[in-house]
Design a protein that fits this description.
7-stranded mixed beta sheet; globular; 7 strands; 227 residues; alpha/beta; binds S-adenosylmethionine; Rossmann fold
Length: 227
């Protein structure tokens, strides 16, 4: 866990928002959150305690509205997904998808990934997805980026050797920055540029496309365990 100025403060990688859920989504949230969520903080655990022996276990960090989580989980019912975001609206949206499509292979985590990764047993995850992370384009905000040197180790500790870290971004600067941090960690293969066929266009990607920015998809395979 990376602490900021004071002992108890994490360097935030997200923009705080306070938007209320409408009555319908609030009802969904209240009815389903306890059944389908995992706490951000708590004892160490292995995802098999929640999912049993899934073929592939995935963590999406910063799932936003969660449209990809729902779409992927519908098409890959033997895979298991944990989707984390700090924003309640996206969490509620995923809960609605779980109910509408009878999904049993998804859990939501409402909170900060920097905290949650500390709960996951090392080597317990097959894939980590970071799709359209907040770009923090200003130089003085770059220390808030998720895929940065001093956070890569902690964020990817749960990823098994042979597991895959995926990034999609509309910021060439972010892609370069992340590639450098991931390369510096010494734990990953060379990057491979490849858009997964199942990665649907999210709201963020559509907005970037409409504003003329192309998406860069990259994946790295973990080749070394932690010391
Ligand atoms: C630009 S949005 C992209 C959302 C989604 N991946 C998409 O493609 O539409 C980035 C998301 O990452 C979330 N995020 C940023 N830092 C996070 C953290 N440390 N833990 C959990 N979520 C985080 C933000 O709250 C935001 O919803």
């Amino acid at each position: 866990m990376l602490r900021g100025d004071s002992e108890n403060q994490l360097v935030r990688t997200f923009r705080p928002r306070r938007r209320r859920l409408g009555a319908e989504m609030d009802d969904v949230y209240q009815r389903l959150i306890d059944r389908w969520s995992i706490d951000e903080d708590g004892d160490r655990f292995h995802p098999r305690e929640v999912f049993g022996d899934a073929s592939t276990t995935i963590l999406e960090i910063g799932c936003g509205r969660g449209d990809l989580v729902v779409s992927y989980a519908r098409g890959h019912r033997n895979d298991s997904l944990m989707a984390i975001d700090v924003h309640t609206r996206g969490i509620a949206n995923i809960l609605a998808g779980i109910e509408a499509h009878g999904l049993v292979n998804v859990r939501v985590v409402e909170g900060d990934a920097q905290v949650f990764v500390g709960r996951l047993a090392p080597g317990s995850i097959d894939e980590i997805w970071v799709f359209f992370p907040d770009p923090w384009p200003k130089a003085r905000h770059r220390n808030r980026r998720l895929l940065r040197d001093d956070l890569i180790g902690a964020l990817t500790r749960p990823l098994k050797v042979g597991g895959v870290l995926r990034l999609a971004t509309d910021s060439a600067d972010y892609a370069r920055w992340a590639a450098s941090a991931i390369g510096n960690s010494g734990r990953f293969s060379e990057p491979i540029g490849e858009r997964p066929v199942w990665r649907i266009e999210t709201v963020f990607e559509r907005r970037a496309r409409e504003e003329g920015r192309a998406t860069i998809d990259v994946r790295w395979t973990r080749v070394a365990a932690d010391d």
